[in-house]
Amino acid sequence: MAGRLLFLLSIVGLSCASSLPQTTVHPKDLPIQHGKFQGRITNGNAATEGQVPYIVGVSLNANGNWWWCGGSIIGNTWILTAAHCTVDANEAILYYGSTNFNQPSLRHTVGRENLIVHPEYRGGDHDISLIRTLHVDFYSLISEIELPSMDDRYNSFANSMAQASGWGAIYDGSNVVEDLRVVELKVISVSECQAYYGSSIATDNILCVETPEGKSTCHGDSGGPLVSEETGKLIGVTSFVSSFGCQAGGPAGFTRVTNYLEWIKEETGIYY
């Protein structure tokens, strides 16, 4: 998969939470080399076969312009991803059950009518989207990830460990790499994230993680999963990184899934 990426929207809101608040960018919009989409989590580890059966690669298209994101299987006919991935797309090609994205176990294409962007998304907050798919049977390489229960709606997850995964860049500006990677990251409090980005970016709908030693989500990881290592449930959807780059040390931001459980239930009937 290669193609030219659309440069869509960067989040540039500031607030007085910090004297020098930083700006952010969606990982899919970071610069690339030679017109190719990038692939790999920075400084993570290679995923083993079946380690992340709930992830899908998502190749999106608008009038011949292609970009790459990730998504999470939350039901036999549903994928959860980021709104900034799907909002301008006309179609999406879904890659199931692969560690190497060139060798998926299954591939489906869906049209614009199956891309459901959160109604309050305007290019920043509420960065969450659903993709309706054909029915997919589950087995060892393709399976769903559970959402948090309604009882977890007020869980901050601060100071807990979580695993991100995706086909995003292995370092700032790197070219495509084909194999899925995973990285373990520590969730920080909203106030810590606001101290870096300000409250207009790090809202209560955002969950942030530390990015020590250059470990982070990066270009190509947008929309992918952040899974609690304690509960094994999906708590975040990859949304943004520092505009200075994936390895700059700024917190990485994820859409907080617990804030959207009611919306997901209304659209899909899925809840716990």
UniProtKB/TrEMBL annotation:
Q: What is this protein called?
A: Peptidase S1 domain-containing protein
Keywords from UniProt, A to Z, are:
Disulfide bond, Hydrolase, Protease, Serine protease, Signal, Zymogen
Pfam family membership, one: Trypsin
Q: Which family does it belong to?
A: Belongs to the peptidase S1 family.
A biological process (GO) annotation for this entry?
proteolysis
Signal peptide interval: 1-17
Q: Which residues form the Peptidase S1 domain?
A: 41-269
The molecular function GO annotations come to: serine-type endopeptidase activity
